[in-house]
Structures are given as structure tokens and as C-alpha cells.
Amino acid sequence: MVVITSIEWVPGLRTSGGDYAWLMIIPPLVLCNTYQLLILHRLTEKK
Hints:
Layout: H1 2-13, H2 18-43
């Protein structure tokens, strides 16, 4: 999760516009982390 979150932050932090930065950071970051949390139980499932 840390690697994907870091990858998502880089484009958003490198922008110069404030509104564009929030648009590039918040929605993709929330969606990506939500997806990762939803599949976490499948990845850590004991068989």
C-alpha cells in the first residue's frame, strides 16, 4: 500500500496549480486505497 500511495502522490505534488493538485491527489488516492483495503483480506487469507 505504501508503494502505490507514493506513486499516486508524485504527480499530484509536482503540479503548480492548487485546484489541479487537489484534483490529482484526492480522488485517485482515495479510490486506490479503498480498492487496496477491499482486497486486503483476499491477499492475507490463510488456506
